[in-house]
Structure formats: C-alpha cells, structure tokens
Amino acid sequence: MGEEVKMSEFEVNGGDDEATATANTAFVDEEDDVDQRVLEWEIGLPDCDDLTPLSQSLIPPELASAFSISPEPRRTALDVNRASYYTLSSLRSSGAHFFTDNNNKNSNNNDLHSFNNPIVVEPEGDGSGSGSGSEPKKMRNTDVGIAEEADSAVRTTENSEDPSARALKRPRLVWTPQLHKRFVDVVAHLGIKNAVPKTIMQLMNVEGLTRENVASHLQKYRIYLKRMQGLSNEGPSASDQLFASTPVPQSLRESGSGGCVGGGGSGLVGGSANGNGHVGMPIPMPYGAPLVPVAMPMYGHLGMHQGGYHHQQNGYETNSYGMQPRDWPGGNKYGSMMSYPNHMAPNDKLN
DNA sequence: ATAGAAATAT
DNA sequence: TATATTTCTA
After folding, report:
1. PANTHER family attached here (predicted)?
2. Whose CB has fewer CB within 10 Å in chain A, the N or C terminal residue?
3. CB of A227 lies under 7 Å from some atom of strand C
4. Which residue, A91, A90, A80, is CA-closest to A26?
C-alpha cells in the first residue's frame, strides 16, 4: 500500500555510458548550437566526448536518497533539463520525429524546478483506516488449495529488508504527465493497430515499467479515446486530467485499418512500415535514454502540502542499458533511482 | 504466451 | 472517487 512512487524523468546515473551513447546535452545557449546538436543527434550519434559528462559528477543517488539531501549540483541538473528542453524544442520545430506539435491546450510547461521541488511520492498518507470493512471482498473461486507458505505471507508492514523475499509486489506506479506523454507518443508511432502492451512497453523504454502497467494504462486510454470520439467534440471532460493533458494524435483515431501509414500521421512514421529497404523500426529508440522512474525521498514529511503534479521538463538523461552499476551488491536497499524504493530491481523479465 | 476486459485493491 | 493492479478469459 503505501508505496506509491512517481515516475520522474530524472535519472542521474553514474555512468558507463557507452552502450547508449545518448545525447548528453550540454547547456547551450544559442540556437545554432542547438541545431547542431540536433543534427548530430539525428544523423548519427552524439559524441559523448564532446559533451560534458554529467553523469560523472553526481553524488551516488543512493547516498543522496539515504540522507534525504538534494542530490548534488542542482546546477547540473538544471542544465541537463534545459538542454533537453531546447533539444526537444528544436526537434519539434524541425518537424522531426515523434513529437506531436499539438501541445496547444495544456501547457505542460513548467519551469525547471524539477530538482527544487522534490518529486513527491503520492500524498497517500498511509492507508489509515481504509475502507473500514465495507464491501465484502469476494474471493474468486480460485481457491486453489495451495496453502503455499501459509506463513505470514507478506509482511504488510514496511517490509523492512528481507532480501530473501523474491517477488514483492511493486509499488503502485503513478502515471505522470510525462510518462503518459511518452506513452502516447509511442502509441502514436505504432499506430493504434500495433500498439499492444508489450511493444509499447518496449518502445517506451522505461525501466521498471511492466507490461501490466502498460496494458492497464492502455485499457484506460482506449476507453478514454472512445468516450472522446463519442462526444465528437472535445469536451474536456473533467475526468482524467491526465489524459486530457496530452493531446491525442490523430493517428490514434480509428481502429483497424492501416493505421498511420499514408500521409496520415503527422510525420510520425518515417515511412518505414512499408517494405522499404530499411525496415526496422522507424524509431529505433524513441527516446534517447531509458527513462528511469525515480523515487524521490519525501522531503517535507507530512504537513507540507505537495502540489499534485510536478511537471518537469523532459529530463532525459544519459544512461546505459547496462543499468546501474552494481552498486548494490546485495544489501543496499536504497534503490538509487529505481522507481521502486526498496526491494526488487525493475524489470528483470527476460523477454 | 499475450492482449483485452473485468474485478479488486489502495 | 479515481486509478493502478490483479485476475480471468479469449
């Protein structure tokens, strides 16, 4: 229960960044530079050498988390943020890939507070009394006689350490607007037709995100789309602030049919779906780096009212597929920037 | 084995 | 209540 974690797009990773060679965007102030960066990025790969190795200078997130201190150089973080922002902006304006330009409504923009505002773990002040035995929990007649370790099953309590515990349940994932956006972008690319949980999950490239997470979200999203269509008008239904916050790409309109092949998509699909020479993915990697959900320590304990969403810019960070350096040989539970605080490493599922 | 939908849980 | 997760079915 009480462990909700917000996905945030920051990931300060110590870094072996060889695998991904993502864009370590350095702070750039002039548009020219930005363009250049973008070009480089698009063309081939950014040279990490040239860029500031941000991933280096940071304090091991574990420590930071452990002591509830702001990671380190906000400065750096901001720079990253800003750089990302510029980069993305450029991409948009140049009509490059997957960024839908429809960001008219909601202004997701916020400033680069990111690091100043702790990304907060959902308020959710502990389940407290909870439902006070309202509905009968109907047990599905699944009762397979497996007593299994009748044992005290899961220590509902804080599940302190328990390294031995294997599959502990994941904390509830919170779909932040950013995360959702990523989701939408990916779905848009795939086209409603190919957008199935597994694929989406893969393309989203978010560590710790499970297929189930995506499936569930997709389910909701579809319902949302449906309702939207039904009303034909935009009708910013009060419900689903989240969904409303991200414009629905046109490609995601009709189900079935070819999806977004023809000129339909807003330049989303580079036209690779066809049997062209270069088949493969239109977008090998929609996002430069794997997004790593991060668990921010709760700074202000209760008492401070945390605003709902912290929009932060896209803080795509350099990261390597290798994931974290094995810092935590075994005991370290401060899961660094893992979405889920304690226990378990994110997706270990071998596909 | 996976997607989609329904039921639960928080 | 809303929304994420789990279960169940196709």
Report:
1. HOMEODOMAIN-LIKE SUPERFAMILY PROTEIN-RELATED, TRANSCRIPTION FACTOR BOA-RELATED
2. C
3. no
4. A80
Closest-CA residue to A318 (of A61, A17, A9, A8): A17
Number of independent structural domains in chain A:
1
Q: Is A184 within the bounds of a domain?
A: yes
Nearest to A112 by CA among A335, A285, A310, A319: A310
The single-letter code of the amino acid at A242 is L
CA of A212 to C1' of C6 (A): 9
Question: What does the pLDDT look like over A43-58, one tens digit per residue?
Answer: 444 444 444 443 343 4
pLDDT tens-digit series, residues A158-167: 444 444 444 5
In terms of residue numbers, what domain contains A190? Answer: 173-206
Residue with tokens 């075994």: A330
User: Is A179 within the bounds of a domain?
Assistant: yes
User: Which residues in 176-215 of chain A line strand C, with CB less than 7 A from it?
Assistant: 212-213, 215
Does residue A177 form part of some domain? yes
Taking the C-alpha atoms of residue A201 and residue A328, their distance in angstroms, rounded to an integer, is 26
- Residue A190 structure tokens: 């795939």
Judged by C1' against the alpha carbon of A220, the nearest nucleotide is: C3
- Model pTM score: 0.46
